[in-house]
């Protein structure tokens, strides 16, 4: 009897038990690749699995980006101001934290502009920031509006900042002299101007501090219907 043996071609995985996979492994691999270079095929290759096997854990690339962004946003620590009069410092600290994330993860800001995220990490940050604003006297709906508007301003600026390296040559440089000078100014200086201008334009909270009950932050949005209603109300 002749026994014939076959071998897998070079570079192919032999048939057998597929490698174990988890959602955390998908997110780990996606974080290593970064949002800017994230594709389902690249994640599958990095994990040594088939492209199709990923869809047992995530619906599509957008959901995977949501999970990566959720993990990143948890790095931001929201601290209530020691003095309620310094509540803008808490927002400034949040702005700086968001900028660090965007600089460390190209594509983060642009991805955040086009998609409303409701993952646990984003809900925690939302509750924390809105909670700080409530603690200093803002009504819940106004606190949510301030947070939403701040995010839009920051993400828009950060996404635009990523594109500045690709500014094409200008046909008439003299006509764009001021713009060129502005784009070449230090990024830190321009960001500080943005944040300062935004915070300076916010109204002061009403004098109703005695009406705001003390509570620990963050507050679970799922167990706080009023906070959830504020998000929906502001979006509508």
Number of strands: 0
User: Overall mean pLDDT score?
Assistant: 81
Helix content: 40-55%
Specify the number of helices.
10
For the CA atoms, what is the radius of gyration?
A: 23 Å
Q: How widely separated are the two ends?
A: 77 Å
Biggest sheet layout? none
- CATH-defined fold name of the largest domain: Tetracycline Repressor, domain 2
> Order of helices and strands, N to C?
HHHHHHHHHH
CATH architecture of the largest domain: Orthogonal Bundle
Strand portion: under 5%
Low-confidence stretches: 1-18, 209-223
* CATH classification, class level of the largest domain: Mainly Alpha
Structural class: mainly alpha
Inertia-based shape: flat
- Give the number of domains: 2
What does this structure look like?
The protein is 54% helix and 0% strand. By secondary structure, the protein is mainly alpha-helical. It folds into 2 domains: 23-69, Homeodomain-like (Arc Repressor Mutant, subunit A, Orthogonal Bundle), CATH 1.10.10; 77-163 and 179-235, Orthogonal Bundle (Tetracycline Repressor, domain 2).
Question: What is the secondary structure topology, with strand pairs?
Answer:
Blueprint: H1 23-33, H2 40-47, H3 61-73, H4 87-104, H5 108-113, H6 120-135, H7 140-163, H8 177-183, H9 187-200, H10 225-235
Helix pairs in contact: 1-2, 1-3, 3-6, 4-7, 6-7, 7-9, 7-10
Features:
Tetracycline Repressor, domain 2; mainly alpha; flat; 2 domains; 10 helices; Arc Repressor Mutant, subunit A; 236 residues; 54% helix
